[in-house]
């Protein structure tokens, strides 16, 4: 496992890059609404075209292993138990116990109260612990509660925090409120990395996805993430394309790289490979790394393992061959 890359990103206002932009709600609104509008037809056509690329043989085998390394193996259910989290963490370290050449996943993603259990099981394996916070998935809580939620997860050992933005504030045009909330949560994270979840299924327009992407990056997000997985539609290729274009353009303007994490609804190896093609074609090979691209998934891993077994042994193992998560 590659360790999380160190990032120079903090709130970009701290480095002076966007000082004038974040001075007031009105200046931030002018900037975000001044971003180029998204061509919906062109975006969807581009995403569909990239989804038709054929990846075979050694390239496909490489893509499957890379996708496994990019998975945030996730359980976010009210019925989660410590035993389930320990089993999930064990699977993250050794996805296919019968094949030691199979790579580990990037992280295990759990609720904050399960962080200590995941951390204890994972030990020094290199698999990270991600915790959802800030009143996930609704984001409806007072700021002090959101910050306490974040600090509790970090103190329990979380390497990464997945926060949700206040969609009500964003859709009401209270952009500075959203920006300041992200900055405060980023500060509460300490050394942990921050992923900012937009819940794109509630943002209504592609233009809003682009605006949310820039807003989160300006506030210091290490990753921007599509969805909680609790709202449909969740991750889609066109939405992810917009976010990938945003991180590409943000690096061109600031020199800072920001990661992207589509989450929810990505279930098959074929789907995952479509996303990897899009990453390569939009941002380039720098983002083809678990430090900069992740899949938030609970069922994707088993399909990747089935396809991997088929390619290495010539035999297709059914879904019962691997543990159910």
TrEMBL record:
Gene assigned in the entry: deoC
Name the record gives this protein: Deoxyribose-phosphate aldolase
Gene Ontology MF: a single term: deoxyribose-phosphate aldolase activity
Pathway: Carbohydrate degradation; 2-deoxy-D-ribose 1-phosphate degradation; D-glyceraldehyde 3-phosphate and acetaldehyde from 2-deoxy-alpha-D-ribose 1-phosphate: step 2/2
Enzyme class: lyase
Lyase found in the keyword field: yes
InterPro entries: Aldolase_TIM (IPR013785), DeoC (IPR011343), DeoC/FbaB/LacD_aldolase (IPR002915)
Record-stated family: Belongs to the DeoC/FbaB aldolase family. DeoC type 2 subfamily.
Keywords attached to this entry: Lyase, Schiff base
Annotated organism of origin: Nocardioides astragali
EC number annotated for this UniProt entry: 4.1.2.4
Reaction it catalyzes: 2-deoxy-D-ribose 5-phosphate = D-glyceraldehyde 3-phosphate + acetaldehyde
Keyword Metal-binding applies: no
SUPFAM superfamilies attached to this UniProt entry: Aldolase (SSF51569)
Cited PANTHER family: DEOXYRIBOSE-PHOSPHATE ALDOLASE
Upper classification of the organism: Bacteria, Bacillati, Actinomycetota, Actinomycetes, Propionibacteriales
